[in-house]
Amino acid sequence: MNAKKTITSKAPGRINIIGDHTDYNNGFVMPAAIDLHTTFTFTLNESESTCKIESIDMNDIYEFDLKELGKGKSWQKYIDGILFQLQENGYKISGFDAVFSGTVPLGSGLSSSASLEASFLNGLNTLFNLGINPLKMVQMSQLAEHYVGVKCGIMDQFVSFMGKKDHALLLNCATNKYELIPIDLKDYTFLLINSNVSHSLASSEYNTRRETCERSLEKIKKILPVQTLSDLKVSDLETIEKSLNETEYKRVSHVVHENDNVHQTKQAFTEGNLTKVGKLLYKGHKSISQNYEVSCPELDFIIDFCKNEKEILGARMMGGGFGGCALVLIRKTEVDSFIDRISESYSAKFDFQCSPIHIKLGNGATIINQN
Ligand code: GLA
Description:
The protein is an alpha+beta fold. The chain is built from ten helices and twelve strands.
């Protein structure tokens, strides 16, 4: 019997411990891959260019011809984005069928889209022996996301490919060099509280934040010899204040302090000082909420609630913002009772529920089965 070639590929979503809205400013981020994934199974179908992809979760099928890409809607656009990238970079593939499903909750700021892109591209790379190196796959996945409409930085795709179990990545987005930081939370754990506010504003506001940063940089370059906002130190802020309007100054101020937060958090993990990690999470949240203004009342409520909990060391919103999850550093034994308390207060305040998501730190993209 001549069995058709089959590949199963999976890639994770992510949390971001600290360093938000710094990646596209050539700064520093500290994300970690989690044990929630998108999983694709591919089969070569022996046609020259006909493909069929089924999303089990969406109960939807996308059929297309590789010679006529670009007709996809919703999740199908990520597929088109990756296939356009293969085409633009001269990689040749032929017809295939695929089925996929995921455990990364959609719209919750855990990068379900990056996990889809990474799982899909990594699977095709193996299925067709394309030999694309991991960093190139990261960059192609980032551009696929741009195709869909968010001019994201490199963080989510990077960690979805490169993440390692029980580690975070300290990534320098200017050079794409990274360090693996062992994460030992001792008696504590990272708990996610999903605000269940779906971040509908996210893509337009995200792109606006990015433009404001670019405009601010042009103004700053006239007075200081810098290439990116991440070349600025906290002590430069006073010098540049007068050359920016109030909004620009707030955005730049966030980026500069947030880069510093990433380095300090690394130091705190290295010292095993989780109390300090927690304080930095609160500090990061204040800056992203008040200076970068990408939080929302529901996330701010969760973070304020955490501040009154004795067994919580710190918390912050994560990712693009305007909804999604808060990351909470909490004593393991307190998790269940905290969930009861926050759930009750949250629904009393907002008339809808928040929900806990339990995660562990996991590995980056892998091929789990091939024959
Ligand atoms: C989204 C983007 C990332 C990053 C974060 C904010 O997740 O995809 O590139 O900019 O927002 O830190």
